[in-house]
Amino acid sequence: RMETDCNPMELPNNMGFEEDSDYRDFEGTDVKDMRLEAEAVVNDVLFAVSNMFVSKTLPCAEDVAYINVETRERNRYCLELTEAGLRVVAYDFDQTDDRLQTPYHETVYSLLDSLSPAYREVFGNALLQRLEALKKDSQ
After folding, report:
1. What's 9-40 look like in SS3?
2. What does the pLDDT look like over 107-128, one tens digit per residue?
3. Which domains does the chain show, CATH number per domain?
4. Which residue from 87, 101, 116, 131 has the fewest beta carbons nearer than 10 Å?
5. pLDDT for res 33
């Protein structure tokens, strides 16, 4: 499972797939399904982008999945998710461009931070709200 940074919007009903009985058989094995990983990535940051979904057109496999994302600036990207991380593979939904040599990012947060100032702002504000809520709870 790919490492992810802290998500400020952890919701109790947003459980990782380890807890989901349908996927319990995968625990402790080397089998990774990138579609499941891609769905988790989308669920983590959907609140901070205009649109984001796992591609239904491009093929998903154990080792690769594709995610379409539209930033709040209305820029569209197709992202490739592999063990190496995430990278932009096209500047439109459901496309790949082999000539595009973009760097891999370890996390979706890092990738979106580099693509979208609006994402950075929304994510930062969500983090601040979460910290304020934690501060109130502890008082």
Report:
1. CCCCCCCCCCCCHHHHHHCCCCCCCHHHHHHH
2. 999 999 999 999 999 999 999 9
3. 34-138 (3.30.2280.10)
4. 101
5. 86
